[in-house]
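Meet our chain:
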Amino acid sequence: MQGPAIFIDLTLEDQAQELRKYFKNLGAEISEEKSTKGIEDDLHKIIGVCDICFKDEPASVNAVLASIVSIMVSITLERGENLVLSFCEKLTKSPTVDLQRVCLQSLWRLFNNLEKSSPLRYHVYYHLVQVAKQVDCVHEVFSGVEQLKQQFTMCPPSNEQMQKLYRLLHDVLRDTDTELAAKVMIELLGTYTAENASYAREDAMKCIVTALADPNTFLLDPLLSLKPVRFLEGELIHDLLSVFVSEKLPSYIQFYQNHKEFVTSQGLNHEQNMKKMRLLSFMQLAESNPEMTFQQLQDELQINEEDVEPFILEVLKTKLVRARMDQSAKKVHISSTMHRTFGRAQWQTLRDLLQTWKNNLVFVQENMGKAIEAAEATN
């Protein structure tokens, strides 16, 4: 297989002609001659057949794609969006993992070399995520919502574009990083206003299901305040969320018995739901019971005697509750717990704690002042 020409010290027009020859030799339907309409037309023709280079070795493909990128970022594109979209779509269809990695590098190269004020960067980034999914390295492209927003500070995408991107990120993350997927979906729902929240039904349902399925998400109360979630009031998915937000295990069991098919149809696992509801129920019990017997936990959480200690250890691993287990007395002593909901009562408690802390600091400061005055008077 013939390798690509080396594009060094060539004008953009000559570089385009070398690319034409290379693709022609691979069997592409393209003329070797330069376009009489200019470099942008050359680029249009080249991008139209560029995926034929996937027949070649990865190193050669990398050089070819790098050359195409160098032309794209060096000229003013009147048809920029169409050309970039066409190029990106070609790169999402490379046939092997090695070539997919090359395409990922090429898209990064294009993204980083476009002007930060260019609206084309959004399209490149969208396809970057798609290719990163293919090679299982999405986290190299996306690490969080704030990092994502920083990529587009000089040219923010439209609301509709961000919604499309958030949906894609949620889809590629939901099987590998449910916690990050949930954060992305919450961000997506936050893009809806009161006027269009009713159109976000599917997104809102995905958000709830993702949060419920995530074994590390326990503070679910904020979801209820999202406008698209409010529009689901009265539906089963909203009822199920309400159970996880504030009810105990028996309420979930009753819901499941009445709506088994619905729970299954949402892709939720009943045993995982039971595990999560036991943890949430324990947190709620811990709020008002600084000390609990093993028997109480057996009754409240519907677990066998031999499962109590392993369950408590599991709770402690989550760091949701600080507690000490007394095996001999068959009791657990609670030091602190995270609240399942954080409403007015919790804010008032926090305010009281901060006020007490402030008063204590004032008291210490006054005593230190008196001590210093006494020491100075003695001297």
Summary: The longest strand covers residues 331-337. Residues 1-7 have pLDDT under 50 and may be disordered. The chain has 19 helices and three strands.
